[in-house]
Fold this protein.
Amino acid sequence: MAEIIVVTSGKGGVGKTTTSASIATGLARRGKKVAVIDFDVGLRNLDLIMGCERRVVYDLVNVIHDEARLSQALIKDKHSENLHILAASQTRDKEALTVDGVKRVLDELAQMGMEYIVCDSPAGIETGALLAMRFADEAIVVTNPEVSSVRDSDRILGMLASKTQRAIDGGDPVKEHLLITRYSPSRVAEGQMLSVEDIEDILRIPLIGVVPESESVLKASNQGVPAIHLKASAVSEAYKDVVRRFLGEGREMRFTQPARPTFFQRLFARAGT
Amino acid sequence: MSRRRKDGARAAGPVREVSVSKSWLDHLLFWRKKQTAQTAKQRLMAVLEAERATRGGARLPDYLPALQRELVRVVSKYAKVPSKEVRVRVERRRHGDGVELKVEVPGAAGA
C-alpha cells in the first residue's frame, strides 16, 4: 500500500516545492520507493528544483489524457534510483486534471510498488490544490511565521477536513503535520516573529519540523539540487529530521533557538517578554 | 479597541524603529522595540475564530447550527432572549474540542 502525502499551504512562496523535493529525496535516501508529483499545472517548477527540467518529455496531464503511459512520463532522479518524478504540464490549464484521472495515476503508482507518493500542491484553493490533497493519507502543511501564511494554513486545514476523500468517506481523517519554514530564531527572540509555540497554539496540529531561514535554499534551487542534499547546512539537517520523524523515529527539535545569544541579548531577554 | 491599548502599553515608551544594524546601541535600545509578534498572534486568533465559526468546513461539527437553534428554543422557553444573544462556539484545544455556550440575558438581575 502506497502512502500518499500532500505538501500544501494555501499561500504561495512558503516552500512547498522545496519541501516536496527534500522529503521525497529524504525518503528515497532511506531506501523507500518514492514518486513525487507536481500538481501545479501551468506553473511547473518541481522539475527545476529536482534538476530534471531537461528530461521532461511527458507529464501528469499527458498520462491522465492517455497521451503517454505512466512509465514513459516518470523521470528517474539522478541522485537516487528509488525516486521518480512526474512533472506538471506547462502548457495546459488546470482544468486538464480530473478526479478520476488523478485516482488512476495514484493507483498505478501504487501498483508499481511505490511506498510513498508525495503530491506537491499548487498555491491557492482551486482545482489543482484540491486534487493534490484529494486522496492524501497524510498532509504536511507548510507555514511561514507570518500572519498571512498562518491564516491560509488554517483555511487549508479546513479543506483537508472536508474536501478530501477521507473526509467524504467519513473514515479516519487525513493525518496533519505542521512544518514551519523560513524560521528565524533570533527574530523570535526579539519578539518580532511568531514563535513555534505561537503557531502551534493557533493551528493546533502536531509539529513535524522547523526549517530555519537560510541562504542555502536559494543556492540549492539555483543548481537544481534538493536542499536536503546540501552539505553541512542547517536546512538539510532540518529536512533530514523531518524525514526521520515522519518515519516514526523520535527526534528533538533543532534550529529553534538563536545560534549564539550575545551577552546583551541574554541580559535583555527578560525585558523583552 | 481595548486590545490596541494593551499593545501600546506593552511597547513601553515611544515606538521608534531602530535601524542601526546590530550595534551595541541596538541591543541597548532592544527593550524599547515594539513586540510585534504578540500583536500578530492576537490578530490571528481573533480573525481565525471568526473565520472558523462562519466556515462550514469539518473543523466545526456539522450539528452546530442545529444545536444552536435548539438551544435558542430551550433558552427562550424560560427567558426572553433575542436569538443573536445565544452564542455557541467550538474551541479547539490540543486535547479535544470544547463547546462553549454563551447566553446574554438582558435584565436578568431583575427577573
The interface with chain A takes residues 24, 27-28, 30-31, 33, 35-38, 40-41, 43-45, 47-48, 51-52, 55-59, 92-94 of chain B (CB under 8 Å). The longest strand of chain B covers residues 86-93. Chain B is about 45% helix and 15% strand.
